[in-house]
Specification:
homodimer, mainly alpha, three-stranded antiparallel beta sheet, 7 helices, 3 strands
């Protein structure tokens, strides 16, 4: 049902992680998850200012998961995803914080995100 | 003679910078320049453990310059390139240091680089 292979932290490859992050929608997804902790995938799509279909969003999530940036958990019929912050911090100290904190990386996405309320589905980590 | 447009720091786009860095050879180039300061392009190709033609290396340099990671200066018949560290630090604090310091990002390149002596062409910046 879910054939995405999530690498162990020891197998992370920096070029692949950077390629996974080199997209404004995937950056918006990562920033949303950094703020909100583990979230229902459908909620991320609705609230992170991502104007795309579920299918396209699934494609982006797959790229992030295959690189090691995100992990996914199925609960009942729902998929939840979260940032692998601890693994990323251990392998590439400071990298993900620098990317999350980068100012002005996509002003249009920032604005659209600002117009919706952000309700975490789960406690923040 | 050189039609590459190097963006002003204010126009840097994080996705483009990450995409430019998402390649082991370009990462090796950036790390070499971080250690050695401004360098003769031919010397970077020879000493950074990059097994490729001049033409392919020029292509990689172009991608890095167009994203804003590197700048180039012509002196006589020689091209010199250096990392735009100050501009990158100002726009994306901590990002380039995290990438330069990342351990084990390409062990094979690290090994080949270790076998040659590194002689800076110009004083380190």
């Amino acid at each position: 049902m879910d054939d995405v292979l999530e690498p162990a932290a020891a197998d992370f490859q920096l070029p692949r992680i950077l390629a996974a992050l080199a997209d404004p929608h995937r950056l918006a997804t990562v920033r949303y998850l950094a703020r909100n902790g583990e979230s229902w995938c459908t909620q991320v799509l609705q609230e992170a200012g991502l104007a795309m279909t579920k299918s396209t969003f699934s494609h982006h999530l797959r790229i992030l998961r295959e690189a090691g940036v995100l992990t996914k958990r199925i609960q009942g019929t729902k998929g939840f995803t979260k940032l692998r912050k601890d693994d990323l911090d251990r392998r590439f100290p400071g990298l993900i914080d620098a990317i999350i904190d980068a100012e002005n990386q996509n002003p249009s996405l920032e604005r659209s995100r600002g117009s919706v309320s952000l309700v975490p589905m789960t406690p923040r980590t």
